[in-house]
Amino acid sequence: MSYYLAPQFLDKVAVHITKNFIDLPGVQVPLILGIHGHRGEGKSFQCELVFRRMGIEPVRMSAGELESPDAGDPVRLIRMRYREAAELIAVRGRMCVLLINDLDAGAGRFNQSTQYTVNTQLVNGTLMNIADNPTDVQLPGSYETEPIHRVPIVVTGNDFSTLYSPLVREGRMEKFYWQPSREDKIGIVSSIFEEDKLPQAEIERLIDTFPNQAVDFFSSLRSRAYDEQVRQFIRQVGIDRVSVQLVNSPDKAQKIPNSNITLPQLMELGEQIEQEQTSLQSTQLAQRYTTGIPQPVPQVERTAPEKGDNGLTNRNLQSQQTSSYNYAAPAGSSGTSQSAPARGTQVGDSKLIENWPDNVSLPEVERLLESAIKQGSRLSLEVAKPREKARNIWRAWPWSQQPENATQALEGIADCINNNPGSYIKLVGYNLQTQTRTLEELIFRP
Q1: N or C, fewer C-beta in 10 Å, the chain?
Q2: CATH of the domain at 169
Q3: What gap in Å lies between CA 91 and CA 209, rounded to an integer?
């Protein structure tokens, strides 16, 4: 099976690695290449294809190794892996890189509910130190005067805005946003269904039917297409003898016939997966458990798909599934929507205006709040004293009550300013579905 390697991805990674092995006088080459983008688009897999194509031997790390019960263990591990890669270059005479997958999951700052330890700060500091001194990486408790080989570092992740900003600055990390084009998707999906011999036209039809889905969606489609063959195997062997047949049988290599995959079958399976995705996004049980705030009950309206003359489902490029939410009005309320209160009514309350600081623009903060609430963002406040802000260290400010509208948010902001008159205050909006920050605005300076 041949895999598709996107030309743009190959060019970016190959140029970065090659630059780190070439001596360019007077040129500062960033040691770290940060590849970020939406989940499931094949960032890690494309990296592996590039390494295989260039004959590179990667030394791998994951986000789970960036935390430990003992402070300093992840830092020691990073330095050991880096020196291991440098030794492989010297001993085997092959190019090596240090690959860290999902860096933002291990060292990123998502919201106020995320817990941090000193290891997070040490990991950021160590990566910055290695980027500044790539040939002088020492293990804790020892020091060697002999310089080691420079090893390029490749990190992957979804949202690098959650990382420590001095780490991702220019000169240390070169950023590459990976979003495969339609041509890239056609090439990737064609390689996925290569053994099934799907015509090119049907592959393009499949991609156009699900244009907003990531690459791993189509891989999941092919996996589901083999579910019926697996069911037949279970019925043939007997469900009570599956374990014996697969684990204790001398011939553990079971032969399952290839599935005769067709485009209508893939369309139907894709509809099922999309319905599961919609259910997962609409329930949001985790938000209810962690915040205690009642969540909207989704009422999904589905339009029956039309079928053309060839029996295939006709779909628009946009999803035909729309969700409508009904919020239960709290006791004593009028039942009207609280997502965007009218400007100048509750927000213009005389008591709020009287307590509002003179050096903070009330209309500007109100505009930011209404925009974030309309986007469905979860609001939070972060404070930092001048010395903390200089080091980009922000502390979450706990709301007395999670705001449900702009009025409650303004009251909370006024309370935060009164309790932190000598600190910087930042308003943050966070999208729980995409796990990205939609708003990050400094609203108060001491």
Answers
A1: N
A2: 3.40.50.300
A3: 51
Q: Cα separation of 146 and 58, whole Å?
A: 23
pLDDT at 366: 85
Domains contained in the chain, number: 3
Residue 314 and residue 254: Cα distance in Å, rounded?
Answer: 38
Q: Residue 240 is part of a domain; what is its CATH number?
A: 1.10.8.1070
Spatial CB neighbours of 356, under 8 Å, sequence gap ≥ 6: 362, 410, 414
Rounded CA gap, 235 and 232, in Å?
Answer: 5
| 129 and 11 part of one domain | yes
pLDDT digits (tens, 9 = 90+) for 387-425: 888 877 888 888 777 787 888 888 888 888 888 888 899
Residue 142 reports pLDDT greater than 50: yes
**This prediction's pTM:** 0.64
Q: Can you tell me the distance from the alpha carbon of 416 to that of 387, in angstroms, rounded to the nearest whole number?
A: 19
CA atoms 223, 224, 225, 231: torsion sign? positive
CA count, 13 A, side-chain hemisphere, 201: 0
The answer on 162 and 27 residing in a single domain is: yes
The band of 446, judged by pLDDT with boundaries at 50, 70 and 90, is confident
Cβ-proximal residues to 360 (8 Å cutoff; 6+ apart), any chain: 417, 443, 444
Report the range of poorest mean pLDDT among 284-288, 295-299, 425-429: 295-299
Residue 86 neighbours by CB under 8 Å, 6+ apart: 96, 137, 148, 149, 150, 151
Please tell me whether residues 271 and 195 are part of one structural domain: yes
**310 has a pLDDT exceeding 70:** no
Per-residue pLDDT tens over the stretch 102-116 = 998 888 776 655 566
Mean pLDDT of 211-235: 90
Contact indicator for 180, 214 with CB cutoff of 8 Å: no
Give per-residue pLDDT as tens, 321-331: 443 334 333 33
Do 191 and 172 belong to one domain? Answer: no
Report the distance separating Cα 412 and Cα 438, nearest Å: 19
- Residue 400 falls within a domain, yes or no? yes
Domain that holds residue 354: 350-444
* Residue 63 pLDDT level (bands cut at 50, 70, 90): confident
